[in-house]
Structure formats: structure tokens, C-alpha cells
TrEMBL record:
Leader sequence residues: none
A Pfam family per the record: ABC_tran
GO MF term set: ABC-type transporter activity; ATP binding; ATP hydrolysis activity
PANTHER family the record matches: TEICHOIC ACIDS EXPORT ATP-BINDING PROTEIN TAGH (PTHR46743)
SUPFAM superfamilies linked: P-loop containing nucleoside triphosphate hydrolases
All residue ranges annotated as the ABC transporter domain in the record: 73-293
Superkingdom to which the source organism belongs: Bacteria
Family: Belongs to the ABC transporter superfamily.
Stated name of the protein: ABC-type polysaccharide/polyol phosphate transport protein, ATPase component
Protein biosynthesis among keywords: no
GO cellular component, one term: membrane
């Protein structure tokens, strides 16, 4: 059993070596960002004098805009507040390599947007350095980089010029940008008259089509409609697969799991965890979990005097421990357990499958149950290829019995995790038309169809 669990470590190590051979395009070293709390300049001499006089008398600044928030921070997060200053980012160090799709998740106020602003050179760091290799296009908030008085056409040319492109290069991309954005009818109207959705559509189209080596996107895509969000996510996936780099912040864990190949969890301005999206999402949700959980090595006793859980494991058809698998390939979930004494009880092993956010996908148990004498057992659930949809799944392990009444001998929720990924090779038939990214639903079975002429 120890050999089974150790194989996942070897797989992870090879993944790290693969990335180490590629080129670094973003290098963040000892990055920190500190903000002064309160209003520094009010825009009026009268209010500046008011604040100065209050400070001279040791009174609270009457013009402070975030006094209540400051008190909230003092009570909730003393580690980030000191001397009227707030540490938004605290000593971050990491690298992003060419072709990576990096997701960044965390609670509100964790420092995600601040980090993207510094990487995009919108905000300067208090200490540390950010080294960038390549042209950066960023979409941080509605209206970023657009002049409200200029038309959509003029803003496309303006942004292209700022990105270092000449007029001919922008002209060659112009029709593609407008078609992607879907604002053809309003392209010669000032963007100040655009709705927030139209703003984002055009802004993303400009950022994605002007040839950036690095695309940085914050949560602004939530403004657009569902179909456009899928279109944008599909475009970001194409950019990443084309060898360019994507850095993406989102509160949609399903989107992070499907789009990104690596993820960072920010917590109180620090990197709490970095790794595969499935593992980082589990950490964020506070649910733990991996593709192999050996409870004997953990020193935990799970179960009762009748039956105890030993280990859970996710494997492919070659019996290798996996954290991620192609949508077309089968996989299996196994539970090792020990029956402690001979009884007439019929034990029922069952697996509880959930997705990010806690939604149940399904529960599976054997179709026939027999009495089990004392000893060691392995219960395996085989999942065929082309059944589960693309995304991250968590597996809870349980054994129950119904003699005389229902007894739960153990239930360990979200012990195991794995991800299904669709590389979209020869995708017609299993992927479908009209979807730019993940199709909806928890399962996506490849069913038997018959299409024929009716007459």
C-alpha cells in the first residue's frame, strides 16, 4: 500500500521537472504591497486642514473613509494591520512559465486583484520585484485601458498602439476583434455609452487578439452573459495551448479547474498553497484530500469495532495513482478496509462523488452484497471513459449496513480528489458544437445514437 501511495509523488515530481525545462515569463521575488489606511488627500484644502487639526489634537480624522473597516481589520486580522498601514501582499515569491495557465483563488481581500495590478504595472510594489518577459495584455476591471470619449474603433487602435503594434498590424486584427466582441453596430459610438457587458466584450476581444505573450484576466468576465463567458474561456484555453501564458483570477472553482493547469491559493496576502487545481481547490474549501489517502500512515483509526478504513486510492487502467486523467480513459476508485470480526452483518461499501461547492454528483455502491468474514478487503468502483464531464471531483468513502437497522460504520467525506480533462482532440461527437469551453452538467456520457432518414 505504501508503494501505491508513493507512486503519486513520482508523478508529481516529473510534472515539476517538465515545467522546469520551459522558459520563465513572470518572476515574482519577495513581493509586498502596503497601503496607508485613511484618506491621504481629500481634494479640498478645507478638509486637509480639518484632518491636520484633528491629528494635532490626537482626535480621530473626521474625513477618514475607512474608519469602520480599519476597526474591523483590527479585530479580525491584526497580522496585516500595523500602525495605520495594511499589508495587502506579504513576501510573495513564485514563477510562471511560458504556456502555463495559472489560476489564482482566495477569499475577498486575499490580495488577488492587487497582485494582478502589480504584475500588469498598474500599481507599484512596496518592496520586491516583478520581472516580465513578453508583451502583457490585462483585463482587470470594467473600462480598464479605454478612453470613454473615444469610439470603440478608436479605442482598438489606441490599445494596439500602446501595446507596440503598428497601424497595419492592428488593421489586420480589427475585423476579428469586432466579430469576437459582437458590438459591430456600436463600434463607431463612444464607449461611454456602452453597457458594462459591451465594455467587457470589447475589452476582452482587444486584450486577447492583439498578440500578447501574457494575458492577465480578473473576475470581470462575470459581467458578460453565459455564452460570452464560454467564448472567452475557450479563447484563453486556445491562447495557453498556443504557447502563450494566461493568469486568471476567478471565484468560479469549476472554471479554474477546467481552464488552468496550475493554481495558487492566496490567504491574507500570502501564498497558502500552490499545485494542481484539484488539490488547491480542496485546500481552499477546507476539505483536504489527495488521490491516495493511507490512514495507517497517518496514524488514524477510521471506523468502529466491526469494520475500519485502511486506504482510499484513485488509479488509471494501468493501476497507476493519478490526480488527472483524459476524459476518454477509464479510472477506478478503490477502498481498502478491514473487517475486524466474524458476524452475519452484510457490509455495504459506497462512494460519494461531489463537485466544487459541495454539490452531490452521485453515490455508488455494489449491486449485490454478501456477508464478509474477518480479514482485509478491497472494494473498487470502475468508472468508464466518456462518462464524467470535465472538471474536479471529490470522493467520500463510507461503509454502512442495514442489519437490524441502518448503521454508518464510517464516512470520510472528500478524502480523494481527481480531475477529468478534455484535450479536445477529434472532439466532434463527445464535445458537441456551439460550446467554447466546458459543457454544462456533471456527467457527459458517450451514448449510443442512431440518426437516419425517416422517409
Amino acid at each position: 500500500m505504501q508503494e501505491l501511495c508513493s507512486s503519486v509523488v513520482l508523478r508529481k515530481h516529473s510534472w515539476i521537472q517538465y515545467n522546469a525545462m520551459s522558459d520563465t515569463v513572470i518572476k515574482v521575488e519577495k513581493l509586498s504591497k502596503e497601503y496607508r489606511l485613511g484618506t491621504i488627500n481629500h481634494g479640498f484644502l478645507f478638509r486637509d486642514l480639518q484632518s491636520w487639526w484633528a491629528r494635532r489634537r490626537g482626535k480621530e480624522d473626521p474625513n477618514s473613509l475607512i474608519t469602520t473597516y480599519q476597526q474591523h481589520l483590527v479585530s479580525d486580522d491584526n497580522s496585516r494591520l500595523s500602525g495605520g498601514r495594511f499589508l495587502a501582499l506579504d513576501d510573495l515569491t513564485f514563477e510562471v512559465r511560458q504556456g502555463d495557465a495559472l489560476g489564482i483563488i482566495g477569499r475577498n481581500g486575499a490580495g488577488k486583484s492587487t497582485l494582478l495590478k502589480i504584475i500588469s504595472k498598474v500599481t507599484s510594489p512596496t518592496s520586491g520585484v516583478v520581472k516580465i518577459r513578453g508583451r502583457v495584455a490585462s483585463l482587470l476591471e470594467v473600462g480598464t485601458g479605454f478612453h470613454p470619449e473615444l469610439t470603440g474603433r478608436e479605442n482598438i487602435y489606441l490599445n494596439g498602439a500602446i501595446s507596440g503594434m503598428n497601424k497595419k498590424e492592428i488593421k489586420n486584427k480589427f475585423d476579428e476583434i469586432v466579430a469576437f466582441s459582437g458590438v459591430e453596430k456600436f463600434i463607431d459610438s463612444p464607449v461611454k455609452r456602452y453597457s458594462s457587458g459591451m465594455y467587457v466584450r470589447l475589452a476582452f476581444a482587444v486584450a486577447a487578439h492583439l498578440g500578447p505573450e501574457i494575458l492577465i484576466v480578473d473576475e470581470v468576465l462575470a459581467v458578460g452573459d453565459i455564452q460570452f463567458q464560454k467564448q472567452c474561456l475557450g479563447k484563453m484555453d486556445d491562447i495557453s495551448k498556443g504557447g502563450r501564458t494566461v493568469v486568471f483570477v476567478s471565484h468560479s472553482l469549476q472554471t479554474i479547474a477546467s481552464l488552468c493547469r496550475e493554481c495558487i491559493l492566496l490567504d491574507q496576502g500570502k501564498i497558502k498553497k500552490r499545485g494542481l487545481p484539484s488539490e488547491v481547490i480542496l485546500e481552499y474549501l477546507g476539505e483536504g484530500g489527495s488521490s491516495c489517502a493511507d490512514f495507517t500512515k497517518l496514524g488514524r483509526t477510521v471506523g468502529d469495532n466491526f469494520v475500519q478504513l485502511v486506504m482510499g486510492i484513485v488509479q488509471d487502467a494501468n493501476n497507476e495513482v493519478i490526480t488527472e486523467i483524459d476524459i476518454r480513459e477509464p479510472l477506478k476508485i478503490s477502498m481498502h478496509f478491514t473487517v475486524k470480526q466474524d458476524t452475519s452483518i452484510r457490509y455495504i461499501p459506497n462512494f460519494h462523488f461531489t463537485v466544487p461547492g459541495g454539490t452531490y454528483a452521485f453515490v455508488s455502491s455494489p449491486s449485490s452484497i454478501s456477508e464478509l468474514s474477518s480479514g482485509n478487503y478491497i472494494a473498487t468502483c470502475n468508472i468508464p471513459g466518456n462518462f464524467l464531464n470535465e472538471g474536479t471531483y471529490y470522493v467520500g468513502l463510507a461503509i454502512t449496513s442495514y442489519e437490524p437497522g441502518m448503521t454508518i460504520h464510517f464516512f470520510e467525506p472528500n478524502v480523494l480528489t481527481f480531475s477529468i480533462r478534455d484535450p479536445m482532440e477529434n472532439c466532434v461527437g463527445r464535445y458537441g458544437f456551439g460550446y467554447a469551453n466546458v459543457m454544462p452538467g456533471i456527467v457527459r456520457p458517450n451514448l449510443d445514437w442512431d440518426v437516419r432518414k425517416s422517409g
